[in-house]
Specification:
Blueprint (H helix, E strand, L loop, with lengths): L2 H27 L3 H27 L24 H9 L1 H25 L6 E5 L6 E2 L1 H9 L6 H10 L5 E2 L3 H11 L2 E9 L3 H10 L11 E4 L8 H10 L1 E7 L19 H17 L8 E3 L31
Parallel strand pairs: 1-4, 1-6, 4-5, 6-7
Antiparallel strand pairs: 2-3
Helix pairs in contact: 1-2, 3-4, 4-7
The structure holds magnesium ion.
The site of magnesium ion has 6 residues, from loops.
Length: 327
């Protein structure tokens, strides 16, 4: 169902209601059988149109009424249809649930240790959390893309971000961890690449999920739409206000800009493989952080990593010498 059509139907409904009220006014001042019969005819006729339109809306396969736009699938190296296994894992597996609980429970125990080590005199402690797929589960947006054969675009995401916060859910374990941090006196700070343009919507979404992100600028740092996705300056702004003891995210750039995928123009397979290897090596080099003050949640659906799969993603699979048996 297109947004234009939905808006048209809403205007039509408004028009009918206003028209009915006006006709009734005339009818009441010029009481007469002909006018009353005409009124009843109008109402019945437009009701049939309204019911038909409503049925059509109900039959639409779209979960979210968004404009149907996007990019041609054949121009994408990694289209939505290739992500179905990852989406099913995230949306339907108890294993994903357990993985998130494991990480948040580990982070909680580590937080206890940190606060104890800091001593009673410590103040102004904070934990930085990313939002999407770290605190907020956006599986419904992926469902919407599948059901409408669409690919991700910033515009589609913007509409979802601005208008469909009521369809989001929580990542398992996130809320319990945040409540525990607050109990310990550690301030949860949300640092996200959601847009400042939809700040009110993001605040409403978090509040609906039982999380208070305010005051903005102290506990909520969103992306300036004029800037890129680099979180470094905002991380520094948080560090200027707080003693940051922990970061939690689902994308390596939530922790350090050193993990940004290099911009490669028409890279060869060798160049892509090298970039992927270097990124993994950087993770190993940062091992003093993992599970200590950096905690990484699983996001098998999307992330910085996909920028390095190249135009032929199947080539990124590990080579093997296994030979298929003949029948
Ligand atoms: Mg995220």
């Amino acid at each position: 169902m297109s947004r234009v059509l939905l808006e048209f139907l809403l205007h039509l409904r408004e028009f009918l209601i206003r028209g009915y009220v006006q006709v009734q006014k005339i009818d009441s001042t010029h009481a007469g059988g002909t006018m009353r019969a005409r009124t009843i005819g109008y109402v019945l006729g437009f009701s049939i149109i309204g019911f038909a339109a409503g049925w059509w809306v109900g039959q639409s396969k779209s979960v979210l009424p968004m404009p149907v736009s996007g990019v041609p699938v054949d121009s994408l190296p990694f289209p939505m249809q290739m992500r179905i296994g990852a989406n099913l894992y995230q949306q339907s597996s108890a294993e994903f649930h357990a993985a998130c609980q494991t990480i948040y429970q580990s982070a909680q125990r580590r937080m206890d240790e940190i606060v104890l080590a800091k001593g009673n005199g410590s103040t102004n402690l904070a934990v930085i959390l990313d939002l999407d797929e770290t605190v907020i589960d956006n599986g419904v947006f992926q469902t919407f893309l599948y059901q409408n054969s669409l690919e991700y675009t910033d515009d589609l995401w913007g509409i979802y971000e601005g208008e469909y916060g009521h369809e989001t859910t929580l990542i398992p374990g996130a809320k319990a961890f945040i409540e525990h941090a607050v109990k310990l006196g550690v301030t949860p700070v949300y640092l996200s690449n959601r847009s400042q343009r939809f700040q009110d919507s993001t605040i409403a979404t978090l509040k609906r999920l039982g999380l208070d992100p305010e005051p903005v600028g102290k506990r909520l740092f969103l992306k300036d739409p004029k800037l890129n996705s680099d979180k470094t300056a905002r991380r520094e702004a948080v560090a200027a206000q707080f003693d940051v003891v922990m970061i939690i995210g689902d994308n390596l750039r939530d922790f350090s800009e050193a993990y940004a995928a290099p911009k490669l123009k028409e890279p060869t397979d060798e160049v892509l493989t090298k970039a992927i290897t270097q990124r993994a090596a950087q993770v190993d080099a940062d091992r003093k952080h993992w599970g200590i003050d950096w905690f990484m949640l699983p996001n098998p659906v999307y992330g910085e990593w996909e920028k390095l799969v190249g135009r032929e993603p199947l080539k990124r699979l590990r080579p093997t010498t296994i030979v298929a048996p003949t029948r």
